[in-house]
Specification:
Blueprint: E1 51-55, E2 61-65, H1 89-140, E3 150-155, E4 161-166
Antiparallel strand pairs: 1-2, 3-4
């Protein structure tokens, strides 16, 4: 393939010129000597890669087979800019299941404690009722007792105290 037939473009216009296959004849011209036909594999015209012109590092257009040319730059796909959840939804469900199990266990424990306390409380109230029945006749009698106690305490200087009790 010959590079002496490359189109000459100005450096500022090298990157913006579209590919125009009808402007440039890229078919190589071989001058064969008049001698015996060459031996070897036969390459048909349709089996060759097409030649494309790409800008090089200096802005010059150079020919290159299409299979060897760099892939065209693909535009980046648009990003998803929707707000993401603060916590992972699956982790939230797992944590909620654990919290539910812990809360249920705590609630069942509280209910069982209340039932256990109900039995002890019922026995206490039963004992109070029996005691009240036993003491009720004694409380109905009219025996009264009066106690009169008079206490006198005299405090002096230097921690001296005198206490008298009168019945």
């Amino acid at each position: 393939m010959s590079t002496d037939r490359a189109p000459q473009l100005h450096t500022e216009a090298a990157a913006v010129q579209p590919y125009r296959p009808y402007d440039v004849d890229v078919t190589p011209h071989y001058r064969l000597p008049l001698q015996a036909p060459a031996t070897g594999p036969v390459e048909l015209y349709d089996e060759r890669d097409p030649v494309v012109w790409v800008p090089d590092a200096y802005g010059q257009m150079v020919p290159m087979r299409r299979s060897q040319a760099p892939a065209p730059v693909q535009p980046t796909p648009p990003r998803d800019l929707s707000p993401q959840p603060l916590f992972d939804p699956r982790a939230q469900r797992i944590a909620a299941g654990g919290i539910l199990a812990a809360g249920t266990g705590w609630g069942v424990g509280q209910a069982l404690n209340a039932l256990a306390g109900l039995g002890a409380g019922a026995l206490m109230w039963l004992a109070i009722a029996i005691l009240a029945c036993k003491l009720a006749p004694a409380a109905m009698s009219r025996t009264t007792v009066e106690n009169h106690t008079h206490v006198t305490n005299n405090n002096r200087w230097f921690g001296r105290s005198n206490t008298t009790v009168n019945h």
